[in-house]
Amino acid sequence: MRYTLDRHAKEDPRVLAVYIDAKRRYAEMGRYQHNFQPVKYSVLIPGVLLHDIGFSAPEFKREGHDVVGARIAREILLNLGFDEPTCAAVCHCIRSHKGKAELPETIEAKIVYDADVLEKAGTVALINDGKILCEFGETLEKFIRRDIEDRKREIARGFFTAKAREMDGGRLEKLLALLLEVQEETGRTRPDFAASEEDLWTDKSAPPSP
Length: 210
Ligand SMILES: [Fe+2]
Ligand SMILES: [Fe+2]
Prior knowledge:
By secondary structure, the chain is mainly α. It is built from 13 helices and no strands.
């Protein structure tokens, strides 16, 4: 889209004038759905690749992997020669991908946030949850409680892009319902879990041997 516009603008400068004028008018009226925000892939791709890099440092438990991740990413990107505005834009994607330290404001940050939430939608996310649970060695109760809080917050906030809303199609709500079911079940007394080896081999109805 951008390259096509560049080419047409070169061939006919009036095309560029129309673009600039229309963009200003839409922006003045807050008509963002008219899509005058081209995605910067030089920001989006590092943002996607590094959004969870905070998990590689132990401080994530205290500070949050979003905040720590942005710090680590800045170091990586500056070392690789990325300029300051690009670093800041990528760090914003990382800091806002949980919607906690800050909320996504740019189109790249909104895409990273939505993609991260979408990954947790649907029944298959329960299997991923199991893997994460093993990785962090948390108790099931604690993990489920946090997961439920996060999903409720994400559902209440909604997606930032129409495409993500369409791709979700209610699956995030479906996952929340499953998590609530798991929580309810883990809170219940399970006689089958309490059974011991002794229960299996001892016939309690038999009279005691003399
Ligand atoms: Fe994350
Ligand atoms: Fe993630």
